[in-house]
Design goal:
There is one protein chain. The protein is an alpha+beta fold. It has a single domain, classed as 3-Layer(aba) Sandwich (Aminopeptidase), CATH 3.40.630.30. It is built from three helices and four strands, in the order E-H-H-E-E-E-H. It has a four-stranded antiparallel beta sheet with strand order 1-2-3-4. Strand 2 and strand 3 form a beta hairpin. The chain is globular and about 35 Å long. The N and C termini lie far apart (28 Å).
């Protein structure tokens, strides 16, 4: 797959409720591309990102192109007072190898 020519304009921002369907499609497409099963039950947290992540003291961010297309995601879910679980760290193949994964991991 050809790498995008211009990736410096990508925006890393907190997910909004309306991002849910795009995040779900991003994650499920990457799973399918890697011959991994998709499971709506396992990924039920994507039905309400705000309630599952943000309202519980966690965070969920998306990496988007200038036109708003979601190309990456990362979520943090509190487990207890001292532990956070890294969840839903996905990045489309065309954007890998350009330090965007590092950006999503360290940007929260």
């Amino acid at each position: 797959m050809k790498k995008p020519a211009e990736t410096t304009a990508l925006l890393f921002r907190r997910a909004q409720p309306e991002d849910g369907p795009a995040v779900r499609e991003l994650i499920f497409s990457i799973l399918r591309d890697n011959d991994l099963p998709t499971d709506a039950h396992t990924d039920a947290d994507l039905d309400d990102i705000h309630a599952y992540y943000l309202a519980t003291g966690g965070d969920f961010r998306v990496l988007t192109t200038p036109d708003g297309t979601v190309v990456g995601s990362v979520g943090l879910k509190p487990v207890d007072r001292r532990t956070i679980e890294l969840r839903k760290m996905y990045l489309l193949a065309a954007y890998r190898g350009q330090h965007h994964g590092r950006r999503t991991r360290t940007g929260i």
